[in-house]
Amino acid sequence: MKKLLKWLKDPAAMAALAGVAAAAVVLSVAELTGAFFTARATPVIALGSTFIDFTPPWMKDFAIATFGTNDKAALFVGMGLTIFLLACVLGVVAYRRWALGVAGVLLMGTVIVASVVTRASVKPLDAIPTVLGTIAGLVVLRLLIAPLWRLKSWPEAPADTGAAEPDRPATSRRRFFAAAGITVVGAGIAATGGRLLSAARSNISKAREALQLPAPAKAAAAVPAGVQSPAAGVTPWITPNGDFYRIDTALSVPEITADDWELRVHGLVEEEVRLTFQDLLDADLIESHVTLTCVSNPVGGNLAGNARWLGLPIREVLKRARPKDGADMVLSTSIDGFSASTPLEVLQDDRDAMLAIGMNGEPLPLEHGYPVRMVVPGLYGFVSATKWVVDLEVTRFADSKAYWTQRGWSERGPIKTMARVEVPKSFAKVPAGRVAIGGTAWAQTRGITKVEVQIDNNPWAEAVLSTEASLITWRQWSFDWEATPGPHYIKVRATDGTGEVQTDQRADPVPDGASGWQSVMVTVE
Ligand SMILES: Nc1nc2c(c(=O)[nH]1)N[C@H]1C(S)=C(S)[C@@H](COP(=O)(O)O)O[C@H]1N2
Ligand SMILES: [Mo]
User: Fold this and answer.
1) What is the Å distance from ligand 1's center to 297 Cα?
2) Tens-digit pLDDT profile for residues 449-495
3) Does 129 sit in the ligand 1 pocket, CB within 6 Å?
4) If DSSP codes are grouped into helix, strand and coil, which group holds residue 12?
5) Is the model's pTM score more than 0.85?
6) Which fold has domain 241-407?
7) Per-position DSSP letters for 65-80, written without gaps between them
8) Residue ranges, CATH 3.90.420.10, the chain
9) Class of 418-524 per CATH?
10) Sheet-wide strand order for 475-483
11) Per-residue pLDDT tens digits for 254-304
12) Per-residue model confidence (pLDDT) at position 158
């Protein structure tokens, strides 16, 4: 502590603090003024999004494996540390050579502006918050650093001279710390104000709540009794919207009102089609239970969810557009520049791929694609489930690459057969005697016909399958185990509707989905 205090008296350390205060001003002024521009225009969101766009497959895989659906929070923490360190360095540089410091700040500002204006559907004027923030940051940096230069040239006054001497280094130091502190606190207030202001100016949540979904022309098949595993603790067969996993590249949820939404269907088609939200409301909608799965889901992971989706079959839209011969892919693009490549035939067959507007009886939640997303049974989300979708280009795999394919993931993504143990949990301690093992398995479009459990090195034994609702939803299972004291391993594997047993070949999620058998260690007491 003493050392820290002594170190803080060093003008260079004070300059570093000035840099941090100036950076806080840059960000908060941009946040506050950014409330009047698109959310994606603020420096942190734009920089973070640009960083995500440059994420190689191994890094995405690592981030999801390490942080799961908290990957965005982890990114913000990482960015915060990076900005903090850069600000310290720039503060010291500005103190030593002001012109160089200014050049550094302007360079940073330029990088941020570049990352703002290159975002999808961002206008050049959206750079204004960053420009204002950078100017304010430079002014504050100058105001904080100038007294430090004087400080350097003053000899330390003897402590016992008594009378107030305004220019004593101790006094100017105190003034400096007060000024820097006030700046940081003020920046915090401005940033919070900016947040509140953006939230108040956005009425997207209200519009969503006010939206009345139409009744489907074709209702979902009734969910048969017995889909839920009898083993206590297995995930609900229908995932509530609030618990549904969320995976996307969007640091701030794109905001499109239903009124502004329009879908353009173009490319290798006889007729370009444009759809408004009203067109969707007026169409014959269908409702269907579909289990979505993320390609980044590790063996035994929980990046999968099952919901009742309401939407228009994409088949119907394609019928109107009439794809030309030679087309084999539809590239769907979201308002924020994500894209997915889906085989054309998958969108035309009877599996009911849809432009969804409803999820479990509610309008799509904002994070799950409001107002319209794609839902395609049987394919991982990264090649099919485009949220906030605004564009369908009928094209060819040979001509176009989707977002994750450009970054090293596969161009196609059929879902691999997977069984997972949900109870008991990994490393759980359970009492000896009868233990209910249970979990979920999926092989969308093929269905699950068998789940087997292996305890330690005993022979594989068949689990009891819960009722099957359809081939495009997951299927639960349970297994009664007579548990004896000691450590035990529980392994699980599924067989799909084609008779194929889930492979034991371990594969990482990159490039086209994880495989292998899950093994759970439990201790019986
Ligand atoms: N616009 C957009 N849509 C997207 C993504 C994205 O990054 N941006 N990610 C996809 C991926 S990888 C998956 S697994 C699903 C996840 O959908 P969910 O968040 O509703 O579960 O959305 C897909 N749709
Ligand atoms: Mo995904």
Assistant:
1) 13
2) 999 999 999 999 999 999 999 999 999 999 999 999 999 999 999 99
3) no
4) helix
5) yes
6) Sulfite Oxidase; Chain A, domain 2 (3.90.420)
7) HHHGGGHHHHHHHHHH
8) 241-407
9) mainly beta
10) 418-423, 433-442, 475-483, 464-465
11) 999 999 999 999 999 999 999 999 999 999 999 999 999 999 999 999 999
12) 52
